[in-house]
């Protein structure tokens, strides 16, 4: 629990820095998941300086990043020769990019990491999973953020959008016991049961309170 409270404390520190302005640094961030949604960006109080459609070659959208609910997934981008990943390129301040890292559970929690690539003279980053898992499905709500965002993408053909929209989905149900921290394999069964129950409790607190609420984000002007 202390680790997650420390994560929240560092996140608040980033928000406080952002209260003093955007700073001089600008970065290019490729969004292809829920961050395609204006609603999500508004909730996170992030407004890009510029937005343009972008297609990343030799990568593909994959739903292989485990969500907190069993069988559910978030999006990641994985290398795939000959395929394309459609998204939007956001010009962000370095400070907003640092805040986005926390929303994507990069610092401390190590759920995602930044992957940097250069294409057509543009250096950009996107978030790639650290814990790729098979047989996962996005939720209906999450998939809707993606399909809605791709409607205005000039390179995303009707067939491509239909393919994404036809992705099998799952509904949030039981929490994953070891969503934030994997359990050591050598633990005895009785300890795994106790530890699993504690981890489910921690995940519930993290999702409903620590991740969801901020003491400073509401002060940030978009």
Topology at a glance:
Blueprint: H1 2-18, E1 26-31, H2 38-43, E2 50-66, E3 72-93, H3 94-103, E4 112-119, E5 122-129, E6 137-138, H4 140-150, H5 158-165, H6 189-210
Parallel strand pairs: 3-6
Antiparallel strand pairs: 1-3, 2-3, 4-5
Written account of the structure:
The protein has 222 residues and is an alpha+beta fold. It has a single domain, classed as Hypothetical upf0131 protein ytfp, CATH 3.10.490.10. The chain has 6 helices and 6 strands. It has helices spanning 2-18, 38-43, 94-103, 140-150, 158-165, 189-210; strands at 26-31, 50-66, 72-93, 112-119, 122-129, 137-138. Strand 4 and strand 5 (122-129) form a beta hairpin. Helix 1 runs antiparallel to helix 3. The two termini are 31 Å apart. The mean pLDDT is 93.
> What does the radius of gyration come to?
18 Å
Secondary structure: number of strands: 6
Question: Roughly what is the average pLDDT, rounded to an integer?
Answer: 93
- Discrete helix count: 6
Category from helices, strands and their pairing: alpha+beta
Q: Report the sheet-strand fraction.
A: 25-35%
Portion of residues within helices = 25-40%
Q: So, the CATH homologous superfamily?
A: Gamma-glutamyl cyclotransferase-like
Spans of at least 5 consecutive residues whose pLDDT stays below 50 are none
Query: What form results from the Cα inertia axes?
Result: globular
Quickly give the CATH architecture: Roll
In short:
By secondary structure, the protein is an alpha+beta fold. It is 33% helix and 28% strand.
Keywords for this structure?
222 residues; alpha+beta; Hypothetical upf0131 protein ytfp; four-stranded mixed β-sheet; two-stranded antiparallel sheet; 6 helices; 28% strand; globular
